[in-house]
Amino acid sequence: MNILILGSGGREHTLAWKLHQSPKLSKLFVAPGNAGTGEIASNIPIGVNDFSEIKKLVLSENIEMVVVGPEDPLVNGVHDFFLNDEALKNIPVIGPQKAAAELEGSKEFAKKFMIRHNIPTAAYQSFTASELEEGYLFLETLNAPYVLKADGLAAGKGVLILQDLDEAKQELRTMLVDAKFGNASATVVIEEFLAGIELSVFVLTDGKGYKVLPTAKDYKRIGEGDTGLNTGGMGAISPVPFVDKEFMDKIHERIVIPTVEGLKKDNLPYKGFVFIGLIKVGDDPFVIEYNVRLGDPETEVVIPRIKNDLVEVFEAVANQTLDSINLELDERTATTVMLVSGGYPEAYEKGIEMSGYDQINDSLVFHAGTTMKEGKVVTNGGRVMAVTSYGGNFREALKISYKNIEKVHFDQMNFRTDIGFDL
Ligand code: AMP
Ligand code: GLY
Question: What residues contact 19, with CB distance under 8 A and at least 6 apart?
């Protein structure tokens, strides 16, 4: 089978690495890919939202399945584009249709979905520019800190958490009236603040059945001890050590089942990954957000713990026979540490030469922001490379990642030395 992956990050390199191991795979393509995917697949310089070029590629290369990495093309309806095209309609796409991708595309849509299906989440109200005064009044009913969320996609930057009421009012105004996040903040969700520890659960569904994938925890802030600006993610651990059977049962009963059943009841066509961002408040799980894709860098620890042939699993998603798959998991812990460019998540340089990562043999090295320039691998993004290791527990696994990171060099390389510090 010829398969195309859309995307260019560590998540996509990990998916490529896993699909590449399948005896069912013939040719693998990644658009646009990175230097890592280029070693095991053909990189094609097409943007993930360029549907007409994707169509040409799929037809000319006899691609028989498309796996969508990031949320953008899903929210823009890439799956629907395939279904509505005579020549493409029988080619399976792994990722939900546009109507279901709204779970990530609109925070308000996601909140309404959760309320409708009785899924535990923070209390909220949403407001548009004409309701600014009502928004202020609602803020006055809440206690600090105040959580403001741009309704639409804002490249992971659309959530503000503010300690001060006046500041919260000011930000609400900037979001609604001054379009701080462009059209994404035309509607703002104001939420009750939930205090607790975060984790993520990944579910794969074919629209009928589902499989719960390993749990993971990521570390989003740039600085040690979870300080400083938010990033795409600086490291991850799977499984999450504080998730015992009792807590997992609660997640399953209260959140996973109602989510999958809710998608069916609401006729939201879903063949793909559901990423459920959770927070543990006391002993109870609450949903912070849904994403309609795998997380990054969570993928770099979740996928390496799945033993099954991933092509077979994706075929089952496409054929709606996922119930017949017996998911086999690696019992070991996997950890990943992200190497980032100096300055990230603010301004940083690209095109910096890299070395040493090819000397690593007891960790998995997944490229994120890398590319080839004049025959050499150079940095090409803020998050550059993820170093994933297995271990009997997360401390053992991290030790191996940190040992191997010492071999990697590029100018201004930065990484967090405290992944797992809070566990
Ligand atoms: P989101 O983009 O919805 O994942 O939000 C980004 C981050 O904001 C989350 O990972 C949480 O750390 C934090 N957050 C979002 N909503 C809440 C909430 N209701 N209470 C506490 N923290 C929150
Ligand atoms: N690591 C968080 C995300 O992928 O959204």
Answer: 3, 5, 25, 28, 67, 310, 311
